[in-house]
Amino acid sequence: MGWIDRISPQTLRILALLAVLALTVLFFASQIENYFNARLFNRVSSSVAIMALIACAQTLVILTRNIDLSIGSVVGFTAFATGSLVTNNPEINPLLLAAYAMVVGAGFGVVNGLLVAYARVPSIIVTLATMAIFRSLLVEYSDAKSITSDALPKWLVDFPNVPLFTIAGVELRAAFVTSLIIVLAVHIALSRLRPARKLFAVGSNPEAAEMAGINQKAVIFAAFVAAGALAGLGGFMFLARFGNITVVAGLGFELKSVAAAVVGGVAINGGSGSVIGALIGAILVDMIDTSLVRWELVSEFWREAVLGLLILTAVAVDAILMRRLIALRVRREKARKEAAK
């Protein structure tokens, strides 16, 4: 197992998480008849196309030792605002519409960022309040009306399900591929770009980051704005997938985004994690949620409890696998040093 010595701890965590995902799939395959099929992948990938963006957004904030509980409300408001715009202007350019969604989401991120970074109000207090405020704004903005798929242009409704590639009956659709590209771009930025790396510095040790000349307030503010923009894009995806948008759009996404990030190995106290892990966490959470619907052994009333239990189990197994892999790596390193003496 010399390969363990050649890869980073973060990569080890990703491998452990993939093992947990595989075990989860095998478990449900043993419980649900005809579990493996193309429809399962297509159903999960359609949902993950939205959740991956939101989990990615939540990761950026958590890396700085903060949290954004308003992200579901941002998705809901953006989905409705984007739907209203395209309903009144069906000829609008698709890229312009997506950019509008990101700008609206970023605007909410500015509000959160200013209060957390510059007013120094704890993020959990700020975003708990703005979660309710943004949702109330949606209620007022919508005026008790709904966006329906009939009023949306055909290209928008068709976008999520457009197959780009088909492999053995498994379709890689436009929305899913788009989300993967965006998550990969954010991952590269966090890995290669110095400004993005500051998120880890601030989250790992705020005092040391400040002494190193990093503007902690600006970094936290930028994290919330970027998270808002990604949540806005998630709202655009939500509109395209569901079409029918009401005032409850995006409700509960804030908790799922936190779950996906934490399950994906993002440290809740900041400074450690990756958006690739959050993506896998989003897939795992959605896989569990989707599979529970088909598992007849579990009633609808217990589904949420079982989901929580399985997520907790997944986190525990991930932690155990990670500790064992790291312990094995440490033992091998000690043995190598002793052999060199």
In short:
With 341 residues, the protein is mainly α. The chain contains 13 helices and two strands.
Describe this structure in words.
The chain has 13 helices and 2 strands; from the N terminus they run H-H-H-H-H-H-E-E-H-H-H-H-H-H-H. It has helices at 9-31, 38-62, 71-88, 94-118, 123-142, 154-158, 174-192, 194-204, 206-211, 216-242, 253-263, 275-294, 303-340; strands at 163-167, 170-173. The chain has a two-stranded antiparallel ribbon. Helix 3 runs antiparallel to helix 4, helix 11 (253-263) crosses helix 12 (275-294) and helix 12 crosses helix 13. The relative contact order is 0.20.
What is the ordering of alpha helices and beta strands?
Answer: HHHHHHEEHHHHHHH
- How many runs of DSSP E, i.e. beta strands? 2
Range of strand content: under 5%
CATH class label = Mainly Alpha
Question: Would you tell me which CATH topology applies?
Answer: ABC transporter involved in vitamin B12 uptake, BtuC
Q: How many separate structural domains?
A: 1
Main pleated sheet: 2 strands, antiparallel
The residue-averaged pLDDT reads: 87
CATH architecture: Orthogonal Bundle
What is the radius of gyration? 21 Å
- The number of helical runs is 13
Strands ordered across the widest β-sheet: 1-2
Based on secondary structure, the structural category is mainly alpha
Shape: globular
Give the distance, in angstroms, between the N- and C-terminal Cα atoms.
22 Å
Helix content: over 70%
Low-confidence stretches: none
